[in-house]
Write a structure and sequence with these properties.
Layout lengths: L2 H9 L4 E2 H11 L8 H13 L3 E6 L5 E5 L1 H12 L11 H10 L6 H25 L5 H31 L15 H4 L1
Length: 189
């Protein structure tokens, strides 16, 4: 999602000022994509320049509110009906990292995969806890949380696939058995 589309979608609810847009955006998305107020105001300036929003009079507290123009409303309607494609999403750093790791000689790719698996598993456990603790509180947050959980589960399945592929293509070299050193007098105490 682009920030301009997110702000236009929020303004479709009614006029808002910058801090209000930022708070609504973060509340609705569960702060999964934090915005700084500078991004909000620079985006509003571009949207106003492009005729998507117009500034209203400054209120008694000195706040500038913005509203959608007809062009902005049309942009939001089009955005709601247009599917998001993979090309609209940012690059997947993990896929790039594993591709680079697989192409790097003498690098233990399995350890890279395992480090990611551990991190993703911890994240999935945290998301599951958040889901259990906040069940039914906020529909928008619940949908965002479900998306994050499903993505973490999909990532774990993909990491399993990567490990299986590595096993077939690059069999592990025989590893030395792990031996636990016999306790010494100092460690036995």
């Amino acid at each position: 999602m682009s920030i301009p589309h997110g702000l236009l979608a929020l303004l479709d609810r009614g006029p808002m000022y910058g801090y209000q847009l930022r708070a609504e955006f973060e509340h609705t998305t569960g702060s999964t994509w934090p915005l700084n107020i500078g991004q909000v105001y620079s985006t509003l300036a571009r949207l106003e320049r492009d005729g998507q929003v117009s500034a209203l009079d400054v209120d008694g507290e000195g706040r500038q509110r913005y509203q959608l123009t007809d062009l902005g409303r049309e942009t939001v309607r089009t955005w709601w009906t247009r599917p998001i494609t993979l090309g609209d999403r940012p690059r997947d750093e993990l896929a790039i990292k594993l591709a680079l790791a697989a192409a790097t000689p003498d690098l233990d790719v399995r350890s890279v995969v395992q480090a990611q698996r551990t991190s993703t598993m911890q994240r999935l456990q945290e998301l599951t806890r958040l889901k259990r603790d906040g069940e039914g509180d906020d529909l928008a947050w619940t949908l965002v949380l479900d998306n994050l959980r499903f993505m973490a589960e999909a990532e774990l399945r993909w990491l399993d696939h990567c490990e299986l592929t590595l096993t077939r293509v690059r069999p592990a070299t025989a590893s030395r058995p792990t031996t636990v050193p016999a306790p010494t007098k100092e460690t036995a105490r």
